[in-house]
């Protein structure tokens, strides 16, 4: 490891934009393929190979294909192990991760409560064993329309009322952005806010600034997933800067889905950071895209000219953008600073 790699690996980090389904390891695939007799053929290879992904649409195709391997609630224990292993490899102590029930429920083999009972229980167990704290955000999804999203919200509320768990902290809007404007999910987000849930939305990943405007003004999303099309609109940049709305930037993901940028060196994260926006760094779909969080930070240094101090600002932005209580954020940040200082001296 060179000095920068060591520096980055030594920083305790958080991640706030991660889909657990896209953390499934090849070992877990094999376990499930053996269990259900799923053949390793051309389709399997194509849909689990990120080099075949050329847009958000083809990414979603892979996403749903991966989900089709999960046929019994206990299968989700494998995902939990994979997420924790990923976190440990990257020195991540806290994650707010998306879990997407829509396609699982549509297939009819596993119910919402069965899925989340396993996830919440297994993440709690994993936290006791590893110290890595993973909280879930239910992706109500825009792919299947507002009615389906509202149903997911109702199921989330009922689950929380029954279990009282702190393992689920909010809802997110993921899925196909083109043709599914944020504004259609106004009622879902308003009901979620009334229920005391945190609300976040993917926007400006594949659609222009109007999508980000809707996410912040109509949905009142507390954070925006991606939001990179904001650079097309000076008024939006001004607004994001003024309100310091956290932007969950996932550089490699944007390069792979190709909507606005095809080279890391051209990624607008540099421009957004320099414009004073509240930028955070995440991987989105680490195993599918074959990207580790440590590597995302390395790329910022080598391809976008970020300094060590700027990396620490991004690490702090990530932590402060989590939904942890303020006193916990401060406690963690103190520890991060002490760790970094001791590794440098
Ligand atoms: Zn995402």
How would you describe what is shown here?
- The protein is an alpha/beta fold and 345 residues long.
- It has a single domain, classed as Alpha-Beta Barrel (TIM Barrel).
- Helix content is 53%, strand content 12%.
- It has 17 helices and eight strands.
- The protein has helices spanning 3-9, 26-36, 42-47, 56-67, 76-89, 102-107, 112-130, 146-163, 186-194, 209-217, 234-243, 251-257, 269-274, 286-289, 293-304, 308-320, 326-344; strands spanning 13-15, 92-99, 133-139, 168-173, 198-203, 223-226, 247-249, 279-281.
- The chain has an eight-stranded parallel β-sheet with strand order 1-2-3-4-5-6-7-8.
- Helix 11 links the parallel strand 6 and strand 7 (247-249).
- Helix 1 (3-9) crosses helix 15, helix 5 (76-89) runs parallel beside helix 7 (112-130) and helix 8 (146-163) packs parallel to helix 9.
- The longest helix has 19 residues, at 112-130.
- The radius of gyration is 19 Å and the shape is globular.
- Bound molecules: zinc ion.
- Zinc ion binds next to loops.
